[in-house]
Amino acid sequence: MEIFGIPLQAFLGQLLLGLVNGSFYAMLSLGLAVIFGLLGIVNFAHGALYMIGAYTAFMLTEKLGIGFWGALVVAPLVVGAIGVVIERTLLKHLYNIDPIYGLLLTFGLALIAEGIFRDQFGVSGQQYAVPDLLQGATNLGFMVLPNYRGFVIFASLAICIATWYLIERTRLGSYLRAGTENPKLVQAFGVNVPLMVMLTYGAGAGLAALAGVLAAPVIQLTPLMGSNLIIIVFAVVVIGGMGSIMGSILTGLFLGLVEGLTKVFYPEASSIVVFVIMAIVLMIRPAGLFGKER
Amino acid sequence: MKLKTFAAACALATTALFGTAQAQYSGDVIKIGIITDMSGLYSDIDGQGGVEAMKMALAELGGSINGKKVEILYADHQNKADVAAAKAREWFDTQGVDMLVGGTTSSTGLAMSAVAKEKKKVFLAVGPATSALTNEQCSPYTVHWAYDTVALAKGTGGAVVKGGGKSWYFLTADYAFGTALQNDTSAVIKANGGTVVGSVRHPLSASDFSSFLLQAQGSKAQILGLANAGGDTVNSIKAANEFGVTKTMKLAGLLMFINDIHALGLKTAQGMYLTDSWYWNRDPETRAWSRKFFEKMKRMPSSIQAADYSVALNYLLAVKATGTDDADKVLAHMRKTKINDIFAKGGFIRDDGRMVHDMYLMQVKSPDKSTEPWDYYNVAQVIKGEEAWTTKAESKCALWK
Predict the structure, then answer these.
(1) d(C-alpha A179, C-alpha A199), whole Å
(2) A86 touching chain B per CB within 8 A
(3) pLDDT tens digits for B346-394?
(4) Does A273 touch chain B (CB under 8 A)?
(5) Chain A residues closer than 8 Å to B235 by CB
């Protein structure tokens, strides 16, 4: 059986690979969406935080002998703490002025972080091994899927759904959402809004770091890995609708699939297909597929 | 009108007089510079390490030539041809730079070569891969020192086909360099009786290669030729291992440097073939020099960095011998002098600007065979200078007819 001249097996294989990449897009765009939705900050440092997450995992192994599973917990906490410091010392001064300042500040921070890591580690990259438990590959019949990639799909889906549930379905999440709608009123009810905002940025940074740790074993670990990815992730957020959490998760997975299929039918276009979709979506629905017009 | 002509004549006469009366060194100082990638994806294979290698050459010659001060300049071209050309122009016009070393990236090399030709200054290309520098776009002021796409294709392509790897599939970076490398290699494969069953082009700095590799695997070819560079090559090899492509196909990296192998680790890279112009662990002489480099940079030199040392050394020796930094005189001397240093033995510069020297086909060691950090290769074959490069029959360079 063939689909558009491609054997069904190969077709299914490519779909699954698209889903793996889509999970990374989903996880990163999720953090961006949370930060934009709740803080109104366009966080250009997100790619750098993702890179720092991956490097933290690398350094934990090198210096302290902590492996992948430990890094999965420790690295997001470390980077989350860095996020909290950034929010407290820099970002909090920018909430009441034009969002362009937040964009410029975070972009500058990203460049500084990249520069520091480049100076320390060079650009050719480091090695980070796939954990022993997930070595090897499983034959699914239509393709051979490395166990680690399968794990990435499950892990990222679990993380995305948990985040969505926390924000959309719990009491804490309702405070957060109310705090962004009308911070003064929520503060008047006795909720500590600045603390909430600080922790939100920290959590967003932690999410980026988590994605970085998950990416470390399969992608070349270099200081430039964040800037290679961040532009696509921004396109995902724009297509999904700035600030929409479910929107960015679904769009991330969907665009991973579209990109995967483009790699089969017309590989040369695979790096721009996301931006073509972005242009079309912006023309038809300027607020994005899942965004609300304000 | 007459007055103007008179003034111009006077001016000409004075400069001419002044020129002869003055010492043989423009600006009374010898200025050499390198424009390369100092911060981007190729900065590890050249960058600061390349500058350091040039400084090592100068230090070896005592820091000055015939009592004249030597200055070494460097600048970042960010892998952009327009930036490289503008910087080269500025250096020749306002800084009095006598010799320019061309760092990584083919497009920047071609741009700087054109500027040097216009300004009649020495341009020694080390990092660029394109063979056009000594072919269609050859120049009397450009010497291509370390390697080029033709030599890489002949080295790896030729050796692998002769070793039984008859059918090839290409994974190619979708820009000028990638297609040039694929075409050059395809020609070598076919000339040796092999076949090319297909290819897939990926965008530069692609985020993921698994999809392309699955397509390659479906081709049932014996050899997967990687016509890409840097991070793209590293990521393709990583994914090839992960997806078990290496069980059914052998990989051939067409442009790889030791830094790429270092990033991959021997466990992943073992058994691969690659062609390079130099290897630090080749003989006692290269080892001694490389250890000195290591003390400064904390990593072993790439072939490009060793060639940076070599161009600086040979240029300065030629300046010393001729007693001038005049481009034509120095180049004439370099063309008739054999190059013997840690980089090349018995090397010589051809009329098309190619520095002819041996190339090396390397096989990456398995982890248990590696005796120390950075001990990564076995030299599988020395490709003699006569066989490595474009031949006179193939050449389209007008200077070599």
Answers:
(1) 13
(2) no
(3) 999 999 999 999 999 999 999 999 999 999 999 988 999 888 999 998 8
(4) no
(5) 219-220
The C-alpha of A263 sits at a distance from chain B's nearest C-alpha, in angstroms, of 7
Mutation pick from B169, B174, B208, B237 vs chain A, by most beta carbons of A within 10 Å, is B208
Please return the burial class of B63, using the count of CB atoms within 10 Å of its CB with bins 0-12, 13-18 and 19+. exposed
Tokens of A127: 């090695």
Token pair for residue B165?
């790897």
Question: From the CA of B218, how many Å to the nearest CA of chain A?
Answer: 8
CB atoms within 10 A of CB B4: 8
Write out residues in chain B with pLDDT < 70, as ranges: 1-23
B121, B329 contact by CB (below 8 A): no
Closest CA to B374 of B361, B365, B383: B365
Q: Which of B30, B42, B48 is CA-nearest to residue B96? A: B30
Q: How far apart are CA B364 and CA B155, in angstroms?
A: 15
Contact between residue B374 and residue B300 where contact means Cβ atoms under 8 Å apart:
yes
Measured distance CA(B296)–CA(A58) in Å, rounded: 24
Distance CA A98, CA A84 (A): 21
Residue B166 phi, psi dihedral angles, 5° rounding: -85, -40
Do the beta carbons of residue A13 and residue A20 sit within 8 Å?
no
Q: What is the pLDDT of residues A161-194, one digit of tens each?
A: 998 898 888 988 888 878 777 778 888 888 888 8
A80 in Cβ contact with A205 (< 8 Å): yes
